[in-house]
Amino acid sequence: MTSSDDPRLGVFRDVRDADLRGRTNVFMGESELVLRRLLREPQRLHSLLLSPNKLERLRPALEAADLSCPVYVAPLE
Fold it and tell me: Which of 7, 55, 61, 69 could pair with 45 as two cysteines, CB 3.0-4.6 Å apart?
C-alpha cells in the first residue's frame, strides 16, 4: 500500500469499537498473538493489514496458513 486513501483499506480506516458492535462475526484483531491464533483458522479471515516488520515476523505462519484472503502491507506512518 502506498496511500492511506486506497479504497481497499476502507474497512480498516477510522474504525471505532462502536462500529463493530452488533455485527455478526466481525471484529478487528491487532496483537501478534491474536493474529497467530487467527491464522490457525484462515477461512475466518476477511483480510489482513500488516506493517512490513509484522509481515516478516509472521511470514512462516502466513505461508503455513494457505490464505485465500488479501494481505495488505503498509508502513506504520
Answer: 69
What global pTM score does this model have? 0.75
Chain centroid, CA 10 distance in Å: 12
CA distance 22 to 76: 29
Quick one: which H or E segment has residue 49? strand 48-50
Q: Which of 74, 64, 24, 70 is nearest to 48 (CA)?
A: 70
- pLDDT (0 to 100) of residue 52: 94
Say how far apart CA 32 and CA 34 lie, in whole Å: 5
Q: How confident is the model at residue 33 (pLDDT cuts 50, 70, 90)?
A: very high
